[in-house]
Amino acid sequence: MNEKYFEVLRRLYPDGKTLYLECRGMDDNNIPGDVKNYRVNVVGQIDIAYKHKVYRNMYIEFCGGHATYIYRHTHKTTGRPLKKAVKELKNVNGLHINTSYPVEEFCNGCVYNASYRLNPMESEIYAENYDYTKKDIVRIINKYALEKYNNVVIIEDAARKIINTAGGYREKSILASDPVFSIGETWNEEHKTVRITARKKNQLAESCEVDLITGKITN
Predict the structure, then answer these.
(1) 152-162 per-position pLDDT tens digit
(2) Positive or negative, the Cα torsion across 142, 117, 46, 105?
(3) Taking the domains of the chain in order of start, what are their residue ranges?
(4) How many other β-carbons are positioned within 10 Å of the β-carbon of residue 102?
(5) Given phi > 0 = left and psi -120 to 50 = alpha, else beta, which region is 129?
(6) What proportion of the chain, given as a percentage, has pLDDT over 90?
């Protein structure tokens, strides 16, 4: 993309924001790097620019924690075709991305809400061989997003830290009960609340909320 065009778009948005990520998969401390969940998505939708076109309200999900491979079809030295492709390690902690953006479509006088993947951008990102880490996730977002980010927070990690630091017996008991994390009722520039709900005998139980901005227990 033309850099001057991209900078004009970015002037419409403030710089230096925090990118919030929400876990959607299973936690695994054996995952290399600093993202210990197999799937994380950007909280809310963001606007991105790709190939001189702006895509509004895009949902972006990152997946990782697995090794990725390529198949080599030619000899490394001679360049001659191989009879059988050779499987080679590409990245021990490779990153995948899933995207979705809304489109209004019209048919017979009616309006339909559809959604599409931005496959060319996904393929471009995969070809760059990024790591499944916070650093590379921010690099990817800053390459395409109209807003610029200088920090990344996984909301589950931040909520756990707040409870461990400021929580009492009740909050720590909830945290120890295989909890479910979800976005709270308030999510704006001043306050970003996360609800933590205990899970007991496969049933949701008591809950509490924390504010990621103030670092306090809110109820």
Answers:
(1) 999 999 999 99
(2) positive
(3) 3-154, 167-217
(4) 14
(5) left
(6) 71
